[in-house]
Queue: 2 jobs
Job 1
Amino acid sequence: MKKISIIGAGMTGSTAAHWLAERELADVVLVDVVEGMPQGKGLDLLEAMPIIGKDSSILGTNDYADTQDSDIVIITAGVARKPGMSRDDLLTTNAAIVGTAATETLKYSPNAFFIVLTNPLDTMAYLTLKKTGLPRNRVIGQAGILDSARMRAFVALETGVSVENIQCYVLGGHGDEMVPLTRHSNIAGIPLREYIPADKLEAIVNRTRKGGGEIVNLLKTGSAYYAPSVAVAQMAEAILKDKKLIVPCAAYMQGEYGLNDMFFGVPVMLGAGGMEKIIEYKLDADEKAAFEKSAASVKETHAALKKLVQL
Ligand code: TXD
């Protein structure tokens, strides 16, 4: 069985463990600083396996040594937003936590692929890449699958069509400046712009952009976890099964879309080589402008990180 270690056994970490184990994708190790909590969640999930007939083993621990020889490391450790906070407000606290999580896990799993969830997402993925010194195919951030799934869900609510028929692509940074690409999105091949009246589509785009905040405001004590964690499970599955799946993820840019030395949400191909390829869409002038606005916001957070941490 393959091995996946999840650093941070909170809401997204433990729910990701659930999705992974349910699909019998790997043995799962849950690491957290809180004593007893990862052990308790791990044992509880392990005890669910006989009922669903899956043989993934799940271990909760406070010791990085237990992550030895992981194929994939998922980083969710850190704090989540409370109402009124932006993702960037988490930078200082989470940079320290993610930096340690990345270097500690690398010691035990020098060959692992890293998938980052902790916010501010693009900047925490950047920190992980720089701290580990890994090539860019081995460090990916999860944001676009979630943001696109939110848009797909809102389109389904609006139209009453099966989510399976709805393809949406949300690119750019994982912030309120993200870029829902309505021109590339479709329902069973019919462009979204033809299917949904312009005012309704604009409302969907706006709700998508603020989708994370909508849930934070409802929950009040934390942020979304079901959809983010199944998104990360989809990424892990694509890598472990060498699926060559094209999904929007945060990737390290080396000239693509005119961007350099930063993480940004773009369509990538996931397979046994991790982030194997960045796919470049042809963007029109409006889309380019939206990309640039979103990129400027990510660059600002990257710059703030560089003031905090020596990279
Ligand atoms: O799509 C996305 N990328 C995201 C990201 C969607 C949802 C949540 N997103 C972000 O993930 C969120 O803004 C946070 O920055 C992280 C984790 O969110 P989660 O909802 O899982 O937060 P929790 O429940 O507070 O869990 C965080 C855990 C908690 O159990 C802490 O004890 C633990 O992280 N933690 C640590 N674990 C290991 N090592 C260290 N140093 C550590 N510090 C805290």
Job 2
Amino acid sequence: MARRPMVAGNWKMFKTAGEGAILTQNIEQLVSGVWDEVEIVVCPPFTALKSVSTVIELDRLQMGLGAQDVHWEEEGAFTGAIAPRMLTDLRCDYVIVGHSERREYFGETDESVNKKAKAVYAAGMVPIVCVGESLAVREADETESFVRSQVRAAVEGLGPEDAASLVIAYEPVWAIGTGRTPTPEGANDVARAIRATVGATFGQPAAISMRVLYGGSVKPENAHMFFAEPDIDGALVGGAALEAESFAAIAEAAR
Ligand code: PGA
């Protein structure tokens, strides 16, 4: 299984356009030897996509660029929303879809996640679909069935080729920004269930080539333990992605 590991930084609502450009340059300085083996992706807020994209282009970085959300319509009267084509225009490769903060604070549902995933593919990008259970679901011992149903809903109607390039981030809601994590083995069990769910719908080749990331309090100190697991292909990193040193150390651990 030669899946290329991915380390993606979710900057959330941090960094202006100027700060984002500087952070990107600082990351570049620190990860030069890692590119070939690890796909590094940064996901700034919309307002910093242009400046970060320009740094990536001018410095010819092999760094992927992702947005944190998108609307599913091609265009229209949707005040405040951003269309897929506006992101490809800025050379975005990826879009985070269904992050638990979008689900919790902005009314994102399994249905809108599915619409967005389809729209992202239709525009020529790849979604990083986030799934993960709340503490209540975990305590009820329903994590796998809950996550499987999120995955099934998210991927409904995608083509098998799309599924093969899919990235799904398993992010337990209770682990995001809390310093708490599942055990690496426990995270791998859910990652394996995610892969099996995609395989059941799209077949084994898609299951083998898609990537599953772990996310939730990933730090330089714990990253290597998650990356050592067979079904975990990298990380979606929040807080530790805001400093070049910690983000680069996590990318290094994915080698
Ligand atoms: P965290 O966030 O690394 O700060 O826990 C992860 C995420 O929300 O993607």
